[in-house]
Amino acid sequence: MKIELTVNGKRQELDSAPGETLLHVLRRIGYKGVKKGCELGDCGACAVLLDDRVVNSCLVLAAKADGHRVTTVEGLAGQDKTGELHPVQEAFLEHGAVQCGYCSPGMIIAAVDLLAHNPDPSDQEIKEGISGNLCRCTGYVKQIEAIRIAAEKMRKDTDV
Amino acid sequence: MALSNLKEYVRPDELDVALSLVKERGTSARVIGGGIDLVRSSSPDIETLVDLSHLSLSYVRQTDKGVAIGATTTLTEILEAPAIENYLQGVAVEMLHQVGAPPLRNLASMGGTLASAHPWSDVITLFLALGAQVTLYNGVTRMVPLSDLYASRALLSPAIITEVLLPAYAKGTAAAFIKFSRTKFDIAILNCACLISIQNGDCKRVRLTAGGTPQLATLLPAAAEVLLGRRLNQTSIGKAAGIAREATLVRDDLRASGNYRRELVYAGVKRCLACVSRQLSGVS
């Protein structure tokens, strides 16, 4: 079947089998930042924004995403044409929130959704925001710190 | 690939078309809201999916009768709705924060959650206690108590859940929910909820539920009965919790033993009732 997705701002018409997941379609067309993990909705490695909300792309049939906007981690940087990293990506790099990096795209996407809807989250809200993303390296402390710092930066940028 | 035998994915614009498809395709068709369970199930029997997302059933509305929630509304949309925040001191908001994680809540729909009827469902445990009413469409529209839906699953074959109503209650009503799980976002080892209305200081309406026992949530009528017409105090709460502990059917599974669950029923009912008692203190 034909589906139409707007991935990172680019409209694309694609062929998809009715039972194919969004995860598989995105990776097939080159968005390898969308990681294949558990494929059960438990690990969050495949997280993307569907319209403006974080979802596990392994649990979304591509057909369900037909006509919708999808943002992958590749679409976060340079959205303002300068090529600059998103504040969340920047904070993850600068504050040691990345070790092996496999969970990072999903974790960053979840954090972007959180901060878009809650610009000043408490640590508890940050924990809840990334509770769908498993990381086996960092122990989460650095990631929580990075999200807190990104939130501060984004609030300052908004104030300016 | 998930659902390897899936041949059709249909998004009808009319409810009658959706119902006709379900009737025509029979057991090879499934209605979906978020579709999470079906993707995870990979069932080879499913050939047609009928997606309800084009039927304008995503809403949370305050009405005279209570809070109406459309079937395709996601759990996140419910959680963020002002009408839900204002409903019985935000008890549903508190519960929804404990359901899975945001990526799941952004997909899971109201109708799908009720139709899937997972035994550990936090939503069902609380909504049964709240006396939720479900609107079904099978050519005609009818409203049934949520408890009837689980008493007779035949009500759903073939029918489509279109709306859920959380009834409005007069002042003097409070509700509480508690979940026991290994982590806050894990599936419940056991969950409990209660709703109490008081008049002149005595309990006039009482509904208690326990879920994840590990069966689907049920009402606990024997425990509720002992509170009717009585004051909510330490003695009556202890008595109701004790009856709930004895009357609730529990068993072992990989998450907990039946004996442990039995004690959780006692603790859960007691804590829910104590929470409601605090909320109602000063109300006559």
Order of helices and strands of chain A: EEHEEEHHHH
Give Rg of chain A in angstroms.
15 Å
Strand runs of chain B, count: 12
Shape of chain A: globular
- Given helix and strand content, the structural type of chain B is alpha+beta
Q: Would you summarize the structure shown here?
A:
The complex is a heterodimer of chains A (160) and B (284). With 160 residues, chain A is of the alpha+beta class.
Topology readout:
The complex is a heterodimer of chains A (160) and B (284).
Chain A: E1 2-7, E2 10-15, H1 22-28, E3 47-50, E4 53-56, E5 69-71, H2 87-94, H3 104-117, H4 123-129, H5 141-159
Parallel strand pairs in A: 1-5
Antiparallel strand pairs in A: 1-2, 3-4, 3-5
Helix pairs in contact in A: 2-5
Chain B: E1 8-10, H1 15-25, E2 29-32, H2 36-41, E3 48-51, E4 60-63, E5 66-70, H3 75-79, H4 82-85, H5 91-96, H6 102-105, H7 110-116, H8 122-129, E6 133-137, E7 141-145, H9 146-151, E8 160-167, E9 173-180, E10 190-199, E11 202-211, E12 218-219, H10 221-225, H11 234-247, H12 258-280
Parallel strand pairs in B: 1-3, 2-3
Antiparallel strand pairs in B: 4-5, 5-8, 6-7, 6-8, 9-10, 10-11, 11-12
Helix pairs in contact in B: 11-12
